[in-house]
Amino acid sequence: MPNEKQKVLPILLIILFSVLIIFSIVLLKKDKPAENTAPVVTAKPAQENPDIFFASNGKNTVYKVKKGDQWSVIWNGTEGKSYDFVSNPVFSADGTQIAYNAEIGGQAYVVVNNTQEIYAYQKSNYITFSKNGKVIAFVATKGDRDYVVISAEILNITDTLKESKSFQEIALAKDADGKSTAIIMNDDGSKIAYVIKENDKIYVVVDGQKSQGYDDVISFYFSEDGSSFTYEAQNGNSVLTITNNQIVSSTNSGSTTNQNNSTNNSTTNNSNVNYPSATYRYKISTQKDIVRDQNQLDFSGCADGAACNF
Question: φ, ψ for residue 202 (rounded to 5)?
Fold first, then answer.
């Protein structure tokens, strides 16, 4: 008997040890999370949606939606007319109004408050509201590099639409806030100014009246009551300050001289003076396109090589 016990004991120990191992394996599998057999998808970091714009008052929003091959703009929850393409949303100063570019059938429009259309020839650019929000103006392309300025009272666009004659090119100048723009209006929109380029000279046009030619026009602003205007222009090495098209001062080589000073005194030692680059060298464009898809930037109404931007 002792021999039989001695034979059985090792067997029992082996069985017990095996049970303990199996039990430990079961516990480990129970605690281990179930292996995910689904395909591993790497989450992309959240990005700001470039297609939604908020007005300055933080309440009004605009974005676009696509249905089939056409686009429409959602302005404060209300959907506007469908177009082949829409872009460049611009808010009024108080954020309560919206205007944007639209194209359908090769025809360009400026759409105001998602309801009113203004004919814009081949394309439009630099949509601008007056500060009080009553007048709208923009640059429109007509033919080969011909530009016109169109303005209208928003409450009565049909009867108040005004168009300037066409120009070779409308250039840029900085307004009173230091922003580069093609159109500057006084607060109530009763006066409108823009800068044009003709035969390598730059001119200021205020209410249809053209100034003398300059090498460049740097800035322009109306007085607070809109009764007068002032701008800075560059001729050669001189930077001129002009009020109501009358030169009031000339800055040269760090010194200010009256216009009556001799030419010799005003042109001495200026070879190393750095003046602002000519604003007219910048093409008219916008950084506010609703759609950032580069394939949408050229459309059927653009001539070959034209700088179409919507």
Answer: -110, 135
- DSSP string computed for 48-94: --TT-EE-TTSS-EEEEEEETTEEEEEETTEE---BSEEEEEEE-TT
Residue 153: strand pairing partners? 135
- The predicted-structure confidence for 151-183, as pLDDT tens digits, reads as follows 999 999 999 999 998 998 898 888 888 888 899
Cα angle, residue 156 at apex, residues 93 and 168 outer, rounded to 5°:
70
Q: Which domain holds residue 227?
A: 172-262+276-281
**Amino acid (1-letter code) at residue 65:** V
- What residues are paired with 71 via a beta bridge? 66, 83
**34-79 per-position pLDDT tens digit:** 444 444 434 434 334 445 666 656 677 788 888 889 999 988 888 9
* Cα–Cα distance, 166 to 138 (Å, whole number): 13
Specify the number of domains making up the chain.
Answer: 2
In a shared domain, residues 53 and 161: yes
Provide the whole-model pTM.
Answer: 0.65
**DSSP states along 104-158:** ETTEEEEEETTTEEEE-BTEEEEEEE-TTSSEEEEEEE-SSS-EEEEEEEGGGHH
